Amino acid sequence: MTLPTSGLPREDVFARLADIRAHDLDTRGGRTWAYVYDSGRAEVDEVAGQAYLAFLHENGLDPTVFPSVLHLENDVVAIAAAHLGGDEHTVGSFTSGGTESCMLAVKAARDRFRERHGAGRTRIVLPDTAHAAFSKAAHYFDLEEVRVPVDPVTFRADVDAVAGAIDARTAIVVGSAPQYAHGVVDPIEELASVTAQRDVWFHVDACIGGWLLPYARRLGVEVPAFDFTVPGVTSMSMDLHKYAYCPKGASVVLYRDAELRRHQLYACADWSGYTVINTTMQSTKSAGPLAAAWATLHFVGDDGYLDIARRTQQATRRLVDGIAVIDGLEVLGDPPMSLVAAQAPDFSVFEVVDEMKRRGWYVQPQLAHRGSPANVHFSVTASSADVVDAMLDDLAASCEAARRIEVGDDTRQFLAALSGLDPDAFTPEMYAGMLQAAGLGGRDGSGGGVGLPEDMASINAMLNALPPALREKLLVAFLNELFRPAAPAPAPAG
Ligand SMILES: Cc1ncc(COP(=O)(O)O)c(C=O)c1O
């Protein structure tokens, strides 16, 4: 790929973009049960898109230069704080997404701990089900990560295990409302009581559920207390680009008071250029996502969100009931809102995922991890309500097809051998060999990354068999292959 010498006509630009997108999943219409959130109302997308474009070029770098950005952010954070039981002391920031919100909370907790207790390596205590964003935060900000097992039946955090893991260097403990993998809410009140007694920062990750759970409660679902109404909750994260149906790039991180949030902020006056004052990780950033979030919240309104939540809850109940009558498929835990994970002890869920793809659906594979078996994950959104019955028919057929696939002894032995491999004994060449074996290696020399295979079941089965540290190294090796500059277009013949 090279820069065209003369700019392309506008129609050509859009025609080429459409071509590039041709193989993407549908983001609208309810066939994609992960990664995208569809309110089922086209006009919500239109309003958000218009607001996004209207603020595309405003820069959130310096709130003293674009007062509109400050205004919009203070409005959005006020709505979020009120939604999560905040009071007049609650403050927060608008961020690019859940990962940034979680990472900022960890950074704030670490820096507060250092201010109070002196420098030195701090620790973060995480139930096994806390989102990977917290591992990423530990990695980036050099905290020691302490993972603790969750209850093997309910998949909720084990309060005693968390309490036992806290020590004098623990800067932060995390609970989830709900956790992504099985969609269940941790015992937030109990965890908050444990951390408050030890004077430790407690973050509630409500990235995926913070917006929907209060509506689910209003619809009669039993939702345990999980927000700032619980004493001892120090900070929270909540994504607006999930169940508030705002375009991507929209989340908030909230703190009980401004003194806590101080540790998140960053200023630099010790260089030769303009004064840098940043609330978040990015410096220059478009105000588009913020304006789109403001517009979406105002356009949908409380009644609109309640209605969307009703449709989402109905679709989730239908899904859980439907799975219950599919032979061999079992829901894990008892999810109160819209995230459902199901295991299949007698056949491969990874084959189910591929079978579903052939039938035009995307459902998400999740690898086994400690007490959590390999499973297939469904994120239900409002638009799922229109298609859930059709999806369940294909899910039943996909399970039947997966059950008929025989796994040979060779494969079984190969997978069993993988679990004993030592990641430290692996060389880059060995990773390249494994990628090749999985059909993911070997760029053809024409530039461009490796191809993406149609069928993922055997690759997922292989990843599933590996210890997590090896999975991670292999995935990094894969990413390093995948993102390669595209080759120049071939010269026209003749
Ligand atoms: C509970 C939870 N926390 C954090 C995240 C990370 O959010 P993002 O993908 O927006 O960075 C997610 C994403 O699904 C999540 O479910």
Q: Please summarize the sheet with the most strands.
A: 7 strands, mixed
Q: Give me the number of helical elements.
A: 16
Helix content: 40-55%
User: Can you tell me the CATH class of the largest domain?
Assistant: Alpha Beta
CATH topology of the largest domain, which one? Aspartate Aminotransferase, domain 2
What are the low-pLDDT stretches, counting only 5+ consecutive residues below 50? none
Distance between the termini: 20 Å
Give the averaged pLDDT, no decimals: 94
- Whole-number total of structural domains: 3
Oligomer description: single chain
Helix-strand sequence: HHHEHEHEHEHEHEEHEEHEEHEEHHHHH
CATH superfamily of the largest domain: Type I PLP-dependent aspartate aminotransferase-like (Major domain)
Give me the secondary-structure category: alpha/beta
CATH architecture title of the largest domain: 3-Layer(aba) Sandwich
